[in-house]
Amino acid sequence: MGLYNSSGTCTPCTDSCAVCKDGTLTGCQQCSPGKILESLVVADDNAKCVDECAVGDDCAECGITIDGSRYCTRCKDSNIYPLNGVCIPNTQKDTYCTSKANGACTTCSGAAFLMNGGCYTTEHYPGSTICDKQAGGKCEKTKKEYGISDDGKLLECDPTCLGCTAPGPGHCTRCPSDKLLKRASGAATGSCIDPNACVDGYYADGDACLPCATPGCKACGHTSFCTECAGELFVSLDGRSCLGECSGDKVVGEVPGGVRRCWCERGFLPALDRSECVLPTECPPDMPLCAACDTSGKCLSCAASNHNIQTDQRTCAEGCGTRASSNQGVCMCELDAVLTKDICVSAKELAKKRTAAIAGGTVAGVIVIGSLVGFLCWWFLYRGKRIGASSSTVGLVQSKSM
């Protein structure tokens, strides 16, 4: 039995009512398990709870359960359909269902959403407990612990999910704010986990726990580079693979801090692209924060151990800039970014700007060509008139002279 606010006092609702309207003893908004709201299209202030769906005079199938109560999914009368889970005679005239067959609705209007053969609204229970946003006859966003399949079937999500595509913990599409959605590579769904469980081959990215791009990688960041490999494998010099042993000129295997990695022999440093080991040289005077440079004047290592080589490859500082992460002391663009003018920018935003620039150039070209064509047309017309006028003048002079 629910409670309602009556002049500042918590007062019990009527029997079988789980939620009733404030200040109204009989205005039930949601019933207790085993009961449903009476057959009203809209629950008003006098709505009452009645027995849940049972196959009988009105309903042919009670195939959906919401909050412990059964609702109708197909009516006995083939000309009507379940509205908010109840078979009502006047549904053959309403505007909620746009296509029905065999006592069920197959397509709902924009004022409702399709679910298990019936049309439901987000304004009224039980649709209000399932769907948060409806559009085009479908539920665009479900509420906690529920999901609706593409063909309009209700899905009772795993208790850890806020949304799903099928029952079970591996089919979540949304998670609570204190959880991460752990997804396999290329998957749209996954499981909701604690942030501290996003380990061993996965990394946290916003509200998601995503797999590392490198096979055999145990730890990684927002870049495509691995920072620690599983088992006895070594992180390659460029951080893009996990190797059984290190190879290459001046490349050796080492285990700093228990992490196996391929590194350069003493006296050598990795090139900025990590493709080889090179002999470092002194840096130019305007690069005081860099301890060593390559022959082109790019920074190979920082003077301070807690600094990273920045994306301009000439300065050192703590951390990295926007859309960049550190890979063994070098700032690299993250997976969704590209390096442009020494800074990491969103690949999507860059593509949009380039498309806009091309479109703008095309429009400008059309305008220029159009202007040129217009000018040439005017010029030829003007020239034609001048020539015609000159011919007439010559003819007139000749006629007078005769």
TrEMBL record:
<dbReference type="InterPro" id="IPR009030">
    <property type="entry name" value="Growth_fac_rcpt_cys_sf"/>
</dbReference>
<keyword id="KW-0472">Membrane</keyword>
<keyword id="KW-0812">Transmembrane</keyword>
<dbReference type="Pfam" id="PF03302">
    <property type="entry name" value="VSP"/>
</dbReference>
<dbReference type="InterPro" id="IPR052798">
    <property type="entry name" value="Giardia_VSA"/>
</dbReference>
<protein>
    <submittedName>
        <fullName>High cysteine membrane protein Group 4</fullName>
    </submittedName>
</protein>
<dbReference type="InterPro" id="IPR005127">
    <property type="entry name" value="Giardia_VSP"/>
</dbReference>
<keyword id="KW-1133">Transmembrane helix</keyword>
<feature type="transmembrane region" description="Helical">
    <location>
        <begin position="356"/>
        <end position="381"/>
    </location>
</feature>
<dbReference type="InterPro" id="IPR006212">
    <property type="entry name" value="Furin_repeat"/>
</dbReference>
